[in-house]
Design brief:
This protein is an all-alpha fold. It has one domain: 2-methylcitrate dehydratase PrpD (Orthogonal Bundle), CATH 1.10.4100. The protein is about 65% helix and about 0% strand. α3 packs across α7, α4 runs antiparallel to α5 and α7 runs antiparallel to α9. Belongs to the iron-sulfur dependent L-serine dehydratase family.
Length: about 300
């Protein structure tokens, strides 16, 4: 790639007088050696999988094998439809869709890891809800995924996208930043505004630990996807309104690296701390272990 930081990405897009999504498509094609239309078709296929996951999560039984989670997306969707939602239609829809995809993941369904399975609901939740609201076609959304990919590429190469390495700030935080920056571009923002959206989003998740109850990507992972979708919408709106990330986004990414590196191991996907080690969290883990022992004996 001809960029390694967000500032370089924005400058290159401005220099070529193109959007980040289109730039990333060119760069990906050049790096892979495959035609741009083939790369585009593959990414469009990924978006189709995301849409299918949203549909499944909003209409089918997503109860996880553990029995701990499932159907919350449909509960939120029904609440939104009641007209009583505090958030209102579009934001509530994004939240429901993000929960839906994350619940499909927890129930062993097919998802696209963006950038990880633990944060798989945020980009689909934001993208599909906005597509429905603004009437965008799938081609436009596919360019949006390339924009999100460019942002994720920079984050991954300068910090983390893995909860085991940098906590949930690396998974959910990165996904929020990717969604916020891409949405800013989809809404007509400049590359510079898209980059500011990333910084605004990431600052809001610095220090977020990874503390999966029972070691499963369910609690609190699923609800964090729902909250993350709403945060991405807020960051995009701030950037489009002219709010700037006073601390440059590339510096925010470096801080994420610093914070994640100093995070105790028990707060990095080990289930050794945080919510996983509350009295309720420990009881859930004991119950899961007991169920697994019984399954082994029966087999």
């Amino acid at each position: 790639m001809n960029f390694h930081t967000l500032s370089q990405l924005a400058a290159l897009a401005a220099e070529r007088n193109t959007e980040i999504g289109a730039l990333m498509l060119e760069e990906q094609s050049a790096e892979s050696g495959r035609p741009a239309d083939a790369e585009f078709a593959k990414m469009k296929e990924y978006y189709g999988v995301m849409k299918e996951a949203v549909q499944r999560g909003m209409t089918e039984n997503t109860t996880s094998r553990s029995g701990l989670t499932g159907l919350d997306a449909q509960r939120v969707g029904a609440y939104n439809a009641s007209g009583e939602s505090c958030l209102g239609g579009p934001s509530g829809q994004a939240m429901a869709y993000a929960l839906a995809v994350s619940e499909v993941n927890a129930s062993m369904g097919r998802i696209i890891a963006t950038p990880t399975a633990g944060s798989c609901g945020i980009i689909p939740g934001v993208f599909l809800s906005c597509q429905e609201r603004f009437g965008w076609d799938d081609d436009k959304m596919t360019y949006g995924l390339f924009a999100a990919g460019a942002i994720g590429y920079v984050i991954a190469n300068n910090s983390f996208v893995s909860g085991a390495e940098g906590g949930c700030q690396a998974e959910v935080g990165s996904a929020i930043g990717m969604a916020a920056g891409a949405l800013t571009e989809l809404r007509g923002g400049t590359p510079a505004q898209a980059v500011h959206a990333v910084g605004l989003a990431l600052k809001n998740t610095l220090g977020l630990i990874c503390d999966p109850v029972g070691g499963l990507v369910e609690i609190p992972c699923i609800v964090r996807n729902g909250f993350g979708a709403v945060t991405a919408l807020a960051a995009a709106d701030m950037a489009l309104a002219g709010v700037r990330s006073v601390i440059p986004s590339d510096e925010v990414i470096k801080v994420m690296l610093e914070v994640g590196s100093s995070m105790p191991e028990k707060h990095r996907e080990t289930a050794g701390g945080g919510l996983a080690q509350t009295p309720t969290g420990r009881k859930i883990m004991e119950d899961l272990r007991g169920s697994r022992r019984e399954e082994k004996l029966e087999s």
